[in-house]
């Protein structure tokens, strides 16, 4: 042991340890061997305890340096995975604040009359300045049911399209339609919206508007090329509570919003396994999504409202995300209990994890948590939380507001404490004070018409209002693309052990063009 195993004597060891550690020629395991060998050499060769102690200190510092350099180097090499982004075609320009000619009457055609479509048809019968021109569904009996809605409202029968799988194209090709309203299964959303725009129609589509990043780019390019509106119908942005908290955020009650949370927690097991002939999803399409995909393909109910509060697309953008899912347990357990362990449903493999957590980082340093769970017996929950420098608010599981006990706030309200929610009296006063102007205007009618408590009607009302007045829509094609692209991106992250994935900039640099989200009104 008078010499080191590789032929270095004690002087050369002391000379080269720092060099090799700095250059990272020694791996983690070898650095431990180096320390032990050095210690043995010191015991045998050195007589001075002082020198021995000094050598030990040097060895420990070298070991620490090696491990620190290795750790910091590994951390610096972790960068988000970036998906290819196409350049904007020549001749196209952004549609961030797109306005189109005013429409005195909005002539609309509906595609998809299963679960969501009939409700939309019924709501439109309560809107002024609209004409329902055409109805389309592959099942003719569904078209007939929607015709009865028109008849009940005292409106003329619409042109019917059904049976033929391409009948929807004929609807889009009509020259007496301004708006195509799409409420089909997810896989048809993008093809139908693109086709509608290519044939001179504005497109309004249920969520998610796309199920792949490529589809998102198709929608963006189609809207930019045709100069037609393309709006994703995210109804939760028009919920009374969400609109009130948006108003609070925009008026600075919560200070600068730093973090937000949203979710879609909704037990859909019975509906997923329900026979389509008895009211389930057409052709089992949602069950098939559970079989084929993981991640979060339904993020927009939780994401949309908080994205508006954070001014996403209007001064900030989602930069990257990381996503992790639990394994799948709920669907199999439910199928075994409901249909038996030997049933086809119980034996089927389901890719969708029961619980998905996705964390998003924005360009301005904010964070967003989005959750998804449709396979557990949990109470319905969209979370909806906004956390700012001066306050916090959440909707689920119990609505509450907490305010920083600053001089300004304390002068207005008594007994404020950041560690607890404000009293019911203060809460009610704040909700009244910050009620959004739109819900003040149309809220009572919305509650009477219905649609998830009225938010669906407010959504349709705003769409028609903006088209009537030639105003920018509340949500543009970039919102729909950015919110919907989480489907593919979260699946990619989950399949790669939670790797960070870059969120494409669908505005191609225009996200900072407008500062702050706002609804457009006639001046």
UniProtKB/TrEMBL annotation:
As recorded in UniProt, its EC number(s) are: 3.2.1.-
* Glycosyl hydrolase 109 C-terminal domain ranges (all copies): 243-397
Q: For this UniProt record, give its keywords in alphabetical order, as a comma-separated list.
A: Glycosidase, Hydrolase, Membrane, NAD, Transmembrane, Transmembrane helix
Tell me one GO molecular function of this protein. Answer: hydrolase activity, acting on glycosyl bonds
Q: Which Pfam families does this chain map to?
A: GFO_IDH_MocA (PF01408), Glyco_hydro_109_C (PF21252)
Its required cofactor(s), as named, are: NAD(+)
- Span of the secretion signal? none
InterPro entries reported for this sequence: Gfo/Idh/MocA-like_OxRdtase_N, Gfo/Idh/MocA_oxidrdct_glycsds, Glyco_hydro_109_C, NAD(P)-bd_dom_sf
Q: Which SUPFAM superfamilies match?
A: NAD(P)-binding Rossmann-fold domains
Q: Does Hydrolase show up as a keyword for this record?
A: yes
The top EC class is hydrolase
* Parts of the chain that traverse the membrane: 25-43, 50-70
Question: Start and end of every Gfo/Idh/MocA-like oxidoreductase N-terminal domain?
Answer: 106-230
* The family this protein is said to belong to: Belongs to the Gfo/Idh/MocA family. Glycosyl hydrolase 109 subfamily.
Tell me the protein's name. Glycosyl hydrolase family 109 protein
- Native organism: termite gut metagenome
